[in-house]
Amino acid sequence: MPLSPYWLRDNCPCPECRDPRNGQKLFQITDLPEDLAIVERDERDGRLAVLWSDGHRSRYPLEWLDAEDTGGTGGTGDGRSEAGKRLWAAADFAAGLPEADWAAYLADPAERAAVLGAVLRSGFAVLRGVPAVEGQVLDVARTFGYVRETNYGRLFDVRVEADPNNLAFTSAAIAPHSDNPYRDPVPTLQLLHCLDNSAVGGDSGLVDGFRAAAQLRAEDPAAFAVLTRTLVPFVFRDRATELRADRPLIELDALGRIREVRFNNRSISTLRLPAAELDAFYAAYRRFAAVTLRPELRLDFRLGPGDCLVFDNVRLLHARTAFEPPAGDGTGGSRHLQGCYADLDSLASSLAVLNRRAAALDTIAGYFEGEGAAEYLGEAVTLAEHMLQAGALARAAGAPDHLVAAALLHDVGHLGPSGPSSGEERVTGLELMAGRDNRHSDTGADWLAQWFGPEVTEPVRLHVAAKRYLCTAEPGYRARLSEASEYTLRVQGGPMTEEQAAAFAALPGAADAVAVRRWDEEAKDADAATPGFDHFRPLLAALMR
């Protein structure tokens, strides 16, 4: 297939070109020669090998080269435009809102991913059972990102105030709107946590601003175009604040897709345009406002104490029905929400990490379910059963999580995994049983280092050396080895010398490696109850980088 040389070289994955820890490039585009060209190319073993005219060599997975475009030619890209969203009307949630229990959200990475995914795709989600205590909304925001501090503070109270500087702090009805359109950048997420809602009225409402804008585009393309190109001065002033941002009501990306909606009649200041342009703007503005007020687009629901609404503030318009304020004598119901702002990029980052970890865990699980289900090097259990038993023994012994993970994963190198940019021959445990040291501890540790820190990988790396050490340092240890373990001991170098044992014992990770080694030797009971891999998934997910 034809390839652009500069594009291909700019995406070289080797450690000379990219930092293996974060993927950042280690060169400037101007560092590449003017006459860069491919001298040789060879496809084999699922990879394209390239020799460049400046002598550099690159290797690319063919799967990566064949991946479909997701950005500039019509894909979802960063997921922030309408192309990456589920546009909705109220009836689409007849079966219920996207919601989750707070405890489950905290405990289960899959539940958290579902909630964050709903915010990105549908624009909102509700967490139920969040402790109805002041300041808790900040803790909710910290589960996926960072609080965005504004002139309202890190946290603001939505309740009736004696001297309000914002309509939100009254009991009046509020039409669908976005918050803080006078900021650049505008806070892209808002959280509202209900502490009390005993008042009559005060229900919440949401309108999908992207759906409303798309509706306007379909019904009146000319009005839509006016609202995308007219800069509107959004302004907020009080005694301590003066804010202004000139932005269109409907903002598009470079491909013409809806990316942001800013809609707040209370904050629009005076436009200074020729009369004809003003007439066109106000006609389009009124048309769009009417669309946002259509009953079929508005989703109404009531927040109760402990409910926390998280929503996209540059997409959804939020609203409120009027409510009866507390009576002067202190009787009557009240409504008190606490809110804060955050940003979508942090939420999207948290979701991407959760999905990346889930994919990594699926990959690891695949080894347990595939070749790991085969016979384990002459023992009475399979390799998967052996590793699962080792992990279970570590957990039963009260070992810290990183050691449970190391015990669980210590022999994954026998299955021949390779890193994302490795082109080395795949070596499995069968090589060890044929008399060739497959260095599975190093292979496994290097592979696991994609996701785990040294607290997990180093006990894996050293667990073979720990067997050789124990055979020297602990009388009677070697005699307790199984026949297969005795055989692999000899292939792996036999017992250490006294000098080697002393050097091993001085290593920072020696004690952890010895602990893993002992569980390794115990985990060969064909009659033992063995938990499945899913039993360890939450523990592994919490340890992943």
Describe the 3D structure.
The protein has helices at residues 5-10, 62-65, 102-107, 109-122, 136-142, 209-219, 221-229, 275-292, 344-369, 383-396, 401-409, 429-433, 440-448, 454-473, 483-491, 498-505, 510-522, 537-543, and strands at residues 38-44, 47-52, 57-61, 99-101, 124-128, 156-158, 174-177, 189-197, 204-208, 232-238, 241-247, 250-252, 258-261, 298-301, 308-312, 316-320, 335-342. The protein has 545 residues and is an alpha+beta fold. The protein folds into 3 domains: 5-65, NE0471 N-terminal domain-like; 82-87 and 98-350, Clavaminate synthase-like (Double-stranded beta-helix); 370-543, Hypothetical protein af1432 (Orthogonal Bundle). The strands form 5 sheets. The protein has a 6-stranded mixed sheet. The chain has a 4-stranded antiparallel sheet with strand order 7-16-9-14. It has a 3-stranded antiparallel sheet with strand order 1-2-3. Helix 11 (401-409) packs across helix 14 and helix 14 packs antiparallel against helix 16 (498-505). The protein starts with a helix and ends with a helix.
